[in-house]
Design a protein that fits this description.
Blueprint lengths: L9 E4 L3 E9 L4 E2 L13 H8 L11 E18 L4 E18 L5 E7 L4 H12 L10 E9 L4 E10 L2 E6 L6 E4 L4 E5 L16 E7 L8 E6 L1 H14 L5 E2 L1
Parallel strand pairs: 11-14
Antiparallel strand pairs: 1-4, 2-3, 2-4, 4-5, 5-6, 7-8, 7-13, 8-9, 9-10, 11-12, 12-13
Helix pairs in contact: 2-3
């Protein structure tokens, strides 16, 4: 009778290890982050653009600045051991951060907000309202390139999101019948999906995610999670603020 011998594997996660701080903007550039110069009523938009341009998402709105970056000041190590062998591995722990600044008509800093991923939607929505940003021009439909999340496959499918004053239309490139049509009034809540916090996204602030909760079902369901550039996310927030009911919940 054959004898099966099981060789146990032991994985050990070491304590967090302090490392020199690294900060990366949306383009992957690394700079030393310094926010001490930000002073309400004194700091100009030109100063912000000069010193923090490396983390600017590139959305041209004179009353609003959104900076986005990943930072790491800690690392980790793992030891995987078997009966006669051992190996070690490690890496950095990254996290995405946001800086939202609003400016007055003279181009001077009015307010600054540091926001994590869980609060960025509320922060952007509030700052846009307070800044008095001009309405979106939707005399022609506005098309955004986004990704639609499929939980069953754990992937994003390339999708177009077309914005009109009375409708939002989603169409996947790879699935002709995977389509959703709904109105701004159908959107009852918007929240951070949590996907940006996944390990593969913490080091890449060039993408942002959100989930639209609808009052009725569509071919894509009642909860639609999308990934997009920060510029597109800000456009979608402006659109919903402009056309969705005031009862829309920003979670």
């Amino acid at each position: 009778m054959p004898l099966a011998i099981a060789i146990p594997l032991l994985g050990c996660l070491g304590s967090p290890v302090p490392l020199p701080r690294r900060d990366r903007g949306t383009t992957g550039e690394e700079h030393k982050l310094d926010l001490t110069f930000l002073k309400p009523g004194q700091t100009s938009r030109a100063q912000v653009d000069q010193q923090l341009g490396w983390l600017d998402i590139g959305y041209h709105e004179p009353h609003l600045f959104w900076g986005r970056w990943s930072s790491s000041a800690m690392g980790y190590w793992i030891v995987v051991a078997s009966y006669n062998n051992a190996a070690t591995a490690g890496g950095r722990v990254w996290g995405v951060h946001n800086l939202v600044l609003s400016f007055d008509d003279q181009g001077l800093l009015r307010e600054s907000h540091l926001a994590n991923e869980e609060s960025i939607l509320r922060t952007l929505h509030q700052s846009l309202r307070e800044s008095g940003a001009s309405p979106l021009d939707l005399s022609s439909p506005l098309t955004l390139d986004v990704g639609h999340w499929h939980s069953s496959f754990a992937t994003f499918e390339r999708t177009t999101l077309v914005l009109r004053p009375g409708s939002l239309d989603l169409q996947e490139f790879s699935r002709q019948l995977h389509y959703a049509h709904f109105t701004p009034a159908d959107v009852v809540a918007v929240n951070h999906s949590g996907l940006t916090s996944q390990s593969q996204n913490r080091e890449k602030p060039e993408n942002a995610t959100l989930t639209l909760k609808l009052s009725r079902d569509t071919r894509m369901g009642k909860k639609i999670t999308l990934r997009m550039s920060p510029q597109s996310l800000l456009t979608l927030i402006r659109y919903l603020d402009q056309f969705a009911p005031n009862t829309l919940s920003w979670e």
